[in-house]
Amino acid sequence: MVPNDNIAGADRVVWDQTASSSPVSLAAVLWDMDGTLVDTEPYWIATEFELAAEYGATWSEELALQLVGNDLLTSGRFIQRQMGLPLTPEQIVERLLDGVVARVTESVPWRPGARELLADLRAAGVPCALVTMSYERFAAPILAALPAGSCQAVVTGDRVTHGKPHPEPYLSAAAELGVPPDGCLAIEDSDTGCRSAEQAGCTVLAVPHHVPVPSGARRVLRPTLAGMRADGLEALLL
C-alpha cells in the first residue's frame, strides 16, 4: 500500500485497504509494453535517427537508450534539447508516433514467451492490464493483434497526469481492475518502470532487454518470459 503523501496528484487511484498478515495472492498481472510485451525499441530508435537526419542533427544509440521507459513528453523534451529541433516536445512525440505506428502496423515484434504467458493467464482467469507510457494510438494496433479480452484494462501515457517513474500509471491500472496493488505482479524491462510499479506497491518481475535493471527489494529478475506459466507467478510475490 502506498500512502497518499508519496503520490501527490494521484490520490484518486490510491488503493485504500487495512493491513493484513494473511498471505497475498496473485490478483492481477500488469504488463509494460515496449521491451516487455513487444520489442519496439528498435522502431523508436530508427524513427529518432530519421528525425535527426531530417534536421541535420546528431543522435546516437547511447542517447536513445537513455529514453527507455520514459514518459513520451519527457523523451520529447530530451530530444528537443539534444537535437536542437525547431519543434515542440509535443510535436516531436507525434512525429515519433507516426514512424513507430507505421512500423508496428506492418509487423508486431513480440518478445519471447510474452504472448504465451498472456494467453495462459487468460485461461487461468487472472486479470491483466497494459501499463505503457506510449500513447493509445500506438498501443491500439498491438492490442488488436492479441486475442480479444487479453487485457481487461489499458493505461497509456496520454491518460495519466504523471508518467513513470511516478506510481500513478500502476495505481490507475490496479484501480481499474478493482484489485489491491500489493497483489499485483508488474512485468517490466526498465529501472524507470520498475520504480513506478514498486512505488505503487507491486512486486516487479524484471526482464531486462535493451538496458540493465538493477536489483531491488521488490524486484525479481529473470532473463526471459519464455517457459513461464500462470501457476508459477504467485510464488514471485514479495
Describe the structure.
The protein has 238 residues and is an alpha/beta fold. It has two domains: 4-39 and 110-236, HAD superfamily/HAD-like (Rossmann fold, 3-Layer(aba) Sandwich), CATH 3.40.50; 41-106, Orthogonal Bundle (DNA polymerase, domain 1), CATH 1.10.150. It is built from eight helices and six strands. Helix 1 (41-54) crosses helix 4. Mean pLDDT is 90; it is low at 1-23.
Unreliable segments of 5+ consecutive residues:
1-23
Main sheet? 6 strands, parallel
CATH domain class of the largest domain: Alpha Beta
The amount of beta strand, in percent, is 5-15%
The ordered H/E elements are: EHHHHHEHEHEHEE
Structural class: alpha/beta
Q: How much helix is in the residues?
A: 25-40%
Strand order of the largest sheet: 3-2-1-4-5-6
Number of strands: 6
Question: For the CA atoms, what is the radius of gyration?
Answer: 17 Å
Mean pLDDT: 90
**Total number of helical segments?**
8
Tell me the distance between the termini. Answer: 13 Å
**Shape, please?**
globular
- CATH architecture descriptor text of the largest domain: 3-Layer(aba) Sandwich
CATH T-level topology of the largest domain: Rossmann fold
CATH superfamily membership of the largest domain: HAD superfamily/HAD-like
**In the residues, how many domains can be counted?**
2
Quick structural gist:
This protein is an alpha/beta fold.
Short descriptors:
238 residues; alpha/beta; Rossmann fold; DNA polymerase, domain 1; 8 helices
